[in-house]
Amino acid sequence: MSDPIHPRGAKPRHLTPGRIGLYAFLVFAAAFFLLPFYVMVVTSFKTMPEIQQGNIFSLPSKLTLAPWVTAWAKACTGVNCEGIRVGVLNSFKIMIPSTFLSILLGAINGYALSFWRPRGGNLIFAVLLMGAFIPYQVYLYPLVRMLSMVSLYNTLPGIIVVHVIFGMPVMTLLFRNYYAAVPVDLFKAARIDGGGFWTIFTRVMLPMSGPILVVAAILQVTGIWNDFLFGLIFAGRDHLPMTVELNNIVNTTTGTKAYNVNMAATILTAMVPLIVYFVSGRWFVRGIAAGAVKG
Amino acid sequence: MKPLRLRRLSAQAALIPTWVIVIFAYLGTILWTIRISFTSSGILPKYDFVGFEQYERLFRSARWIISVQNLAIFGVMFIVGCLVLGFLMAVFLDQRIKGEGIFRTIFLYPYAMSFIVTGLVWAWILNPTLGIQHAMHNWGWTSFSFDWLARGDRAIYMVGFAGIWQSAGLVMAILLAGLRGIDEDIWKAARVDGIPTWRVYISIVIPMMSGMFVTAIVLLAIAVVKVYDIVVAMTGGGPGISTEVPAKFVIDYLFNRQNIALATAAASVMFVAVLVVLGPWLYRQYFRKERRAA
Question: Domains in chain A, start-ordered, CATH in brackets?
Answer without folding.
Answer: 17-64 (no CATH), 85-291 (1.10.3720.10)
